[in-house]
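Revision sheet: structure tokens.
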Amino acid sequence: MKFSNLLIKWYLQNKRDLPWRSTTNPYLIWLSEIMLQQTRVAQGTPYFLAFTAAFPTVFDLAKANEEEVLKLWQGLGYYSRARNLHKTAQYVAFELNGVFPGSYNDLLKLKGVGEYTAAAIASFSYNEIVPVVDGNVFRVLSRYFDVETDIALASAKKEFAALAFELIPKDNPAIFNQAIMEFGALQCVPKSPNCSICVFNESCAALQKNKVAQLPVKSKKLKVRNRYFNYLVVADDNENTIIQKRTAKGIWQNLYEFPLMETVKEEGFDYVAEKIQEHYFEENEVVSVMECNAKSIIHKLSHQHLYIKFWKVGLKGTIENGINNEVLKTFPFPIVIHNFIEKE
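Predicted:
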């Protein structure tokens, strides 16, 4: 068990002081793990602290309304995580009397909890002997043991989990899981790791074979789709504006936005102004259209790139359901729209 012993020794000397590491409370560990999916620790930590201040228990989170949760989540991205988080909190609070399931298999039944998150909660909260397998674990094990399995394959997780299970000390699975993830995050990083100071530099197969940069093997992602969003920022005679809720499945569900004109390519002033006059705001006369950003803001999501322009649209009279700027700022928005509102 030389690998495990060296790894844990490294961890105890190098681990970061993170707020969720000082607890075995499954609520706090679940919260941190959901937040850290697709999110770096440095970005996620302030959100974790804000959430635990606002919702110190699963009952507090369950009793909140969804818009409160989305507003606090604003900027963290992958908003389905927040919606699932809220639904799961309600289920645990109201159906399970606030008690989280006590095993890996039962944790998997919770909405938004996959194999990795269930393993993390089970090992950190209950010391269950179950390995975590995330990107860090794939990277560390593939390099150390020279495993060339494509980690994009569905079968890869099972293979790496079996390997991790062989290495995990059965008397302390939690510390091993923490250690291997931390090692991947701090030492065995994706690009140009400093192998000269690595505790495994005498035993790492990838280093001996000069293959560190080639591992782990991962097939290319799906092609990214480009979309072109034109947001119509209305101002009536009272300087009130209007927003709408995105209710359809897909990106930003249940967040708010300005009226949207989506086009097949980036369009200029003449095209947009004409479409606004023809198809939008029929109850009020359009008196002015102004381009706020001549160059599109490119907002990159995992599977699509959004090219976003904002257009100021002046309307005559009073618009129905108009809201002022103060009220506007209380709604949860995608971060790109939030940033626009804050700059105005």
